[in-house]
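quick one, 323 residues, struct below
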Amino acid sequence: MAAVSPNAYIFLGPELGKKQDEVDSIKQKLPEAETTVFYAGETPVSTIADTIQNESLFFDKRLIIIKNAEALKKKDEIELLVSCMENIDHNTAIILLSDELKLAAALDDAVPKNNRKIFYELFEREKNEWLKQFFKREGFNIDKECIAVILEMVENNTEALKRECSRLIHFLPRDKEQRESQIKAEDVEKWLFHNREESAWTLFSRIAAGDLPKALESLSVMLAAKESAQSILAGLASCFRKLGDYLSLLETGDANNSFELKKIGISAPKTKDDYAAAARRYNVESAEACLALTAEYDNLLRSPVGVMEKILMDRYILKIITA
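---
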């Protein structure tokens, strides 16, 4: 078994905000450290190893972050990286990050148990409370309807919520006569949709409209921003599962029932429009086929051909829209 390094860390899971908080806490332990970020699967492990083994010319302390660590699968590469992790000095820290829940066993063995953490997606009540407290600190009062709209339009992790809500507060009207301004759902939808970044949800909107060029453009922007292809597929899988629920409501005649729509997570007008558009392109069987195709490409991305990520994802979008 590999010798563990007290300065090596593994942070996994889909809850990006809490994971980033943990990374920030490591940075605080290494003030004025040189921070180097690598993406596994893009940078050769030999290059990462050289950086770890060679001292910095200008900094006494170093923080080396390896993202998409689930891509570290080859035995010789893992052994090389583990060897480096065993020998890092006390002024260097290495953090392996992944949205997945598991890495190669040899990597786990090289990191102390207390330094390995998994950050799962927040429960619904936790996300609700997070949003309430965020807006309360900014001088706003937010109700359940507004929270539902935000959770429909923003990826469900606190990093994305913080990013989008921090933008949103600059556009929301304030009541100068009240200690806390009441947020209106129509303002939330208007400004979130106007300012939102590309995400699996905006990509689904393009898919629902059958707009192949825009869908490919949206995908390209996300991949260029280092968005994990697996996380994009996970977001789309969620959308297609919700589409299946929406199609079931159509069959029972409840698709215009606001209460039933809220139960499946659809309440914002723009979201309703997207699912109505998707329902014109897909039926229950084709929505299930899209889910199966999403699972198929998720497996492909984890296989040896996963190095062709951009080609695979373009092909996936083409098949989804022409299904």
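The first helix runs from residue 16 to 29.
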